[in-house]
Amino acid sequence: MKRVSKRLTELDSLKGILCIIITFFCHYNWLMTTDYPIKTAFTDCLYKKGYYAVETFFILSGFGMALGYSRHLGTDKDINIISFIWKRMHKIFPIMAVALVITTVLQFIHFRMYKSWYYVAEVNLYTFVLSLFNLSSGWFVLDVNLNMPLWYLSALMLDYVLYYVICRVSKNRKNVYLFLILATTLWGMSIVISGHKSDLPFTYYNVARGHACFFAGTILKEVFEFIDDEEICKRIANVFVSFLLIIICLMYFYGETRVLAGTEWLSQMMWGLFLSPMLIWICLYWNPIKKLLNLKGLVKFGAEVSMSMYIWHFPCYQVIRILSGGGFNKSVLCKNLVLYDSD
User: Which of 17, 96, 256, 329 is the most exposed place for a label (fewest CB within 10 A)?
Assistant: First the structure.
């Protein structure tokens, strides 16, 4: 079995690139205007289809979680759930809290000036508390996060809890562990595939794809450790490069719903569950990409800067919209806003 003794810096860099795509392209399209500042065929695709990076982000999160914690959580050592969650969240919680306060103040300024909230349904004590404790999306409510992009972290924290429970229940019984992570992946998939937009706690259609991809990432970790031959891994990466290039070209020219699946939601699932693991494998084993992702500046950005940028970009967009007159490119002030609902 493969033992990872060093940090996989390639994945830090990939995380940074995904953050840039989501923050400056995908969310620019959602939060700002269709008058894009960078106009090329390639960037137009990033603006309109950059949300596919979210699935890859969840795969990365599940992969990293399993790689770092599966053996520790599967032992009899007393690792309580609070300590586990705090260890994962303590570095970014102060940044999140400050950003939330500023975001809330900006929401009231926006409401006072333009009689509408900026891209959220309502701002009150209830939504503030849920946003502060990362319980705003995928837990008890559909989505009430006052810092809109942080729905991802709320859904991710639920995945952390589920993963903790699975590891503690399985107690290093490999077959039980594998069954549970596979079952949880299928649970998330079933919610999306069903097409039923459930509004029940813990089964929200809108974040179920994140649950499926997170636990698919934990499965990828098992494959990663099982294939212990470096040359075989590189050969697999070569095959993945060719296949992924063909699929991306077909998606670009014919559209993802004609290539991957019949609907955008299912296409996102196909990308997340099958193509994102290929992309991660390529980053780890295909030398041209591997060398690029090991550039010191890119690694440092992905590891130390990207998450702060992700947390702060929404309030920055708030300021720009307030100063620019508060207009919107879409009808976004729906009472029951469901983010990324493409149906």
Answer: 329
